[in-house]
Amino acid sequence: MAETLKARYGPEVPRRIAAMVERVHPAFDSHRFVAQALDGYDGLELMGRARRIALALDAHLPADFGAALRVVLRSAREPVPAAPDDALASFVYLPHTLWLAARGLGHLDASAAAMRELTQRFSCEFAVRPFLDRHPQAMLAVLARWVDDPSPQVRRLVSEGTRPRLPWAPRLQAFGRDPAPVLALLERLRDDPDEAVRRSVANHLNDLGRADPDRLVALCARWAQGAPPARLRLVRHALRTLVKRGDPRALAVLGYPGRARVRLQDVTIAPARPRIGARVTISFVLASTARAPQRILVDLRVSYAGRGGAERPKVFKLATAELAAGGRLALRKGLSLRQMSTRTHHPGRHRVEALVNGQAVEVGAFDLLPARP
Asked: What does the domain layout of the chain look like in residue ranges?
């Protein structure tokens, strides 16, 4: 099973931060800081560990906010000692951003400037949100300036920091009720030259669609009109959850209107009785029964057996195609049945369906057996 995130955010993280701070602030008591940060550390998840480090950091910084902020920013400019060469390397700066969110609320201007700098190292999306709650209009004005910032990390922060369902973060209740002020910022970012910024906008809109699909579909329909290719990719990504649900309005925005006229042929699910830890391969042919070409979008929905027999459906992307009259499209998908940190497999029947322009077509099923002893 893959190593958990919290396991990769181990005791070496506060030790690295201690070394960074001590280099710029020799009075910093690294020993006591690390001891306080690691008190109860093992029982915490990743965000809990980062918050514990931020609390310990605050306890050993100067009492004056301005002086403490200077230490935090100078330490963040220091090289990370023995930084791991993996995707979590930048997470060493997460406690810096959480400290700023807790201590800087009464100092908007200085904190906003600090966020702009820190987000070059690790996204300050968790720091932005308390300021939006405490100072909504003032923080919106800051975000409006950041839309035109030369740094793509800062422009991305405008979208990511205001996401309705940002992972690991509390909801922004005010903008959940009325997202119009934030959507006005996204309008200015929709054609941003940086792919990461546009991707964040798409993720933000996908969050919006979970609560207000009507608003999302209307916005995407407007954005798709005469859109350049980059914006069309944004729209497709923004609508992905609605597409997986087979929402006909979302599919129509993407150019897949109405029911596709197809039938399944040459279905194979092998092996039919795989074991946990193995792989299963699903293949079939979609044959057109229409007299004219048709655009089709095909996903695969696997209803995994859960504990106690409950089904847990998951949708996988398969293909988009222009299917000629009488044409055939061969499709194939391999699924890993290994136990993972993100998905636990259970023995039982797993149903398989093709979603063709949002309509479910039964493919078959396989029976998952326990792993070999």
From this structure: 5-253, 262-368
